[in-house]
Amino acid sequence: MNNLQKMVLLAGKDLRSELRGREILPPMLIFGFILVFLFTINFPAAAGRAPVPPPSAGGIGSRTIAAAFLWVSVLFAGVLGFSRNASMEREGSRMEGLLLSPVDPAALFAGKALANFCYLWILELVVFPAFVLFFDVAPGTLLPGILAVALATNVGLASAGTLLGAASQYVRARELILPLLLFPIVLPLVLGAERLTASLLNGAGLGPQSQWFMLMGTFDLAIPAVGAVVFEYVVNE
To answer: What is the pLDDT of residues 62-76, one digit of tens each?
Structure first.
């Protein structure tokens, strides 16, 4: 059995465990939904459909702010899931058992990251429609571009969340340490997602902000590579 098959099997194990226990997704989905509701409820009615006002010096449009709120909601809810996923492996010494199994640590990291990647997609299946509803934006404005933005975001976010979630489980105040470690690292990723989403909301498409895809692509290559190399050291320490 090669590492790719082991990665898929490990991710499947996590997803089946979640299907039985429902300890990760329900809090993520509820928290993400509530955040989107709270962030967007104060925007003017039909703000997502109203004509885009001309730019003003130093001004920030409501759609740019709304895009930022969308991805902050995803990030915060994602942290909740990353932390819970990592803590479940710590409970009962499950991680130690996985490390003793005939599985390469890189495959173990990739399997955990793939599970978190799936959790993020499920979260976004709830958060994106809620955003469309509360911000009153035409769905065609976001689709299909938002799917490409989400893919580029989820790869890096799941990888960083998996690595730092595992690292934070072996220190005190782990619920506080994970956000402190994660937020500065994924800031370029979330900023790129916000800029691309704002461009979609403003009707400009992804083209004017395509340089952000290059930055996000670099992040998506670097973080999984680093995680695959250092994951064994992180969980053993």
So the answer is: 778 888 899 999 999
CA–CA gap between residue 166 and residue 76 (Å, rounded): 17
| 114: nearest Cα among 73, 79, 85, 93 | 85
> Rounded to an integer, what distance in angstroms lies between the CA atom of residue 192 and that of residue 198?
10
Angle, in degrees to the nearest 10, between helices 25-40 and 62-90? 160
User: Of 198, 15, 12, 45, which Cα lies nearest the Cα of 133?
Assistant: 45
Q: Is the pLDDT of residue 174 over 60?
A: yes
Q: Is 98 exposed, middle or buried (0-12, 13-18, 19+ CB in 10 A)?
A: middle
pLDDT, tens only, 81-97: 898 888 776 665 666 66
Average pLDDT over residues 10-29: 86
- Written as one string, the DSSP assignment of the chain is --HHHHHHHHHHHHHHHHHHH--SHHHHHHHHHHHHHHHHTTSPTTTTTSPPPPP-TT---HHHHHHHHHHHHHHHHHHHHHHHHHHHHHGGGHHHHHHHSS--HHHHHHHHHHHHHHHHHHHHHHHHHHHHHHHT--HHHHTTHHHHHHHHHHHHHHHHHHHHHHHHTTSTTHHHHHHHHHHHHHHHHHHHHHHHHHHHHTT--SGGGTHHHHHHHHHHHHHHHHHHHHHHHHHH-
pLDDT at 161: 92
Q: E strands of the chain, at which residues? A: none
pTM over 0.85: yes
pLDDT of 60 over the 60 cut: no
